[in-house]
Design goal:
The chain is mostly helical. It has one domain. It is 59% helix and 0% strand. It contains 4 helices and no strands. Helix 2 crosses helix 3. The longest helix has 21 residues. The radius of gyration is 19 Å and the shape is elongated. 7% of the residues are buried. The model has no long low-confidence stretch (mean pLDDT 88).
Length: 90
């Protein structure tokens, strides 16, 4: 990805620096996650943008309840895969 995601947050006067920084971080994260969900940036680029390792980004998605992949979940496919893996064990 070329460049970085920049988000401008305007807060009312009198807001503490700590609160402003927290709001900026939250807005930045939300923007990156929104771009990732839209397919505009890759998982690796989103992770890098948030200064996270790839697995840390996946953990963040889990914490936020965001599925790594959208689509239909087919429990039969999971059961078949589990059965095939079990059959491979010595």
């Amino acid at each position: 990805m070329s460049g970085t995601v920049q988000v401008k947050v305007e807060v009312p006067e009198g807001i503490s620096e700590e609160a402003r920084e927290t709001a900026e971080r939250s807005a930045h994260e939300a923007t990156v996650l929104s771009l990732w969900r839209a397919g505009a940036i890759s998982t690796r680029d989103a992770a890098a943008e948030l200064n996270l390792a790839y697995h840390e980004f996946l953990d963040l998605l889990a914490e936020r309840g965001i599925p790594v992949e959208d689509g239909m979940f087919d429990p039969k496919v999971v059961e078949d895969a589990a059965r095939q893996l079990a059959a491979r064990k010595p």
